[in-house]
Write a structure and sequence with these properties.
The chain has about 425 residues and is of the alpha+beta class. Helix content is about 30%, strand content about 25%. The longest helix has 22 residues. The relative contact order is 0.11.
Length: about 425
């Protein structure tokens, strides 16, 4: 057998070598070359295990143990028959049993067609993204830099790194946020930075899950279900961004995963991953961070930013609790809105509320504080998205509100405030 050694985990260009040659014509080898391994139990067939198996195969090939990798690849494709990338790897392993694989995508002449070339390039990119994310995992004990503080009501945070084609699910524990899921995703055909309806781009920003959509109501394209997000959020609307219907959703039955850029703007997961996500997250309280590249930091690195903003928020609360209307009014932008209500129509409600309170203290609980730092080309200030429970004086029932703050000329101003539940 020809023995080809790929240094997948070495430095430089060798880290991007993947095995493409036999993908489109491997099935003729399968019956004669490998004993059929037993598939794993159905309960174990989840996406992250599929990816773990794929990485183990890469490791064996990189160590020059392609023969040992063969049964693992066969196992992978049997348990995930719609995993095209798994079939690609198996095809190259089978081809290596009969001839040297001299170049990436070394297809016979009769298979060198434009459609095949496009498919192979898409699979190369998917494979590269999966391998890169494996080598560049978030350091233990770090969190996305957008998460300044979470209330006890927020059990999970979803963070999407579009540059790495990766979705991370973090769970709130007594010891802080813990990474519990890490999986490949696809984004818009035209990339990221959605601005207009139909631009085929995935939005960047901080969003919240809304009501899930029953899979029975969806076309097969969307796979096992959908988790819509509140795009365009209030910041998007302020900037004039349009469009709707941005979801986290699954894949069509014939595909385990989709190419890196393959959606109309949604974030797409494999169906097993989506089902796992839908089984644990709560709608309305789960933030979804979609960034071009996530910055992972230790929580203590965010202390300064959090304390600085909490001081500003404390001043706003003080003005409200003491009924200082002029001081309170100064915290709002001139173009403030509460849903469709402009400031001048909304402000009398605040005055009435403070009059009824008669300078008795409001109570604020369960505050979640998320920071969005726009890119330089957005030409706007930093944004804070605050979700909190507010209990007016003499009322036992609190309401949940959300505010959007914008940093303007070094000062923080509220441009949206509204009751969300």
């Amino acid at each position: 057998m020809h023995r080809q050694v790929y240094r997948l985990f070495g430095a430089g260009a060798a880290t991007t070598l993947f095995f493409l040659g036999g993908f489109l014509h491997h099935t003729s080898f399968a019956k004669n070359k490998i004993a059929q391994p037993q598939p794993v139990a159905a309960s174990a067939r989840v996406s992250y295990e599929a990816e773990t198996q794929l990485i183990n195969i890469y490791k064996l090939i990189g160590a020059g143990r392609s023969r040992d990798a063969l049964p693992l690849a066969q196992h992978l494709t049997q348990n995930f028959p719609n995993f095209q990338l798994g079939h690609l790897i198996l095809g190259d392993l089978l081809l290596m049993q009969t001839k040297p694989v001299t170049q990436l995508g070394d297809l016979p002449v009769h298979l060198k067609k434009p459609g095949n070339a496009l498919l192979l390039e898409e699979l190369r990119e998917e494979s590269r993204q999966r391998m890169t994310s494996f080598q560049d995992r978030p350091p233990e004990g770090t969190i996305p830099s957008q998460v300044l503080g979470l209330s006890s009501q927020t059990k999970h945070v979803i963070a999407v790194d579009t540059e790495r084609s990766r979705l991370y699910l973090l769970e709130s524990t007594a010891n802080g946020l813990k990474l519990v899921m890490d999986t490949y995703i696809s984004v818009g055909k035209e990339g990221i930075g959605k601005y207009a309806e139909g631009d085929l781009k995935t939005p960047l920003g901080i969003y919240y899950l809304t009501a899930p959509i029953d899979p029975k109501l969806l076309a097969p394209l969307y796979g096992g279900g959908a988790l819509p997000i509140n795009y365009p959020n209030r910041y998007d609307q302020r900037l004039g961004r349009t469009g709707s219907g941005i979801w986290l959703h699954g894949t069509m039955p014939e595909r385990f995963s989709r190419p890196v850029k393959a959606t109309d703007g949604c974030v797409v997961l494999s169906n097993p991953d989506l089902q796992k996500l839908m089984s644990v997250v709560s709608t309305k309280t789960t933030p979804v961070i979609i960034a071009s590249k996530l910055q992972w930091v230790r929580p203590e690195q965010l202390t300064g930013e959090r304390l600085q903003f909490e001081a500003v928020m404390g001043e706003w609360r003080s003005a409200k609790n003491t009924g200082q209307l002029d001081r309170l009014r100064n915290f709002y932008t001139v173009d403030f809105r509460s849903y469709d209500t402009p400031f001048d129509a909304w402000w009398p409600r605040v005055q009435q509320e403070l009059h009824q309170a008669q300078q008795q203290p409001f109570e604020w609980r369960n505050t979640t504080l998320l920071a969005w730092h726009p890119s330089s080309n957005e030409k706007t200030g930093n944004v804070m998205i605050i979700t909190y429970d507010e209990a007016p004086p003499k009322r036992k029932q609190a309401v949940t509100k959300r505010q959007y703050w914008l940093q303007i000329g070094g000062q923080w101003k509220i441009f949206f405030e509204g009751v969300i539940s």
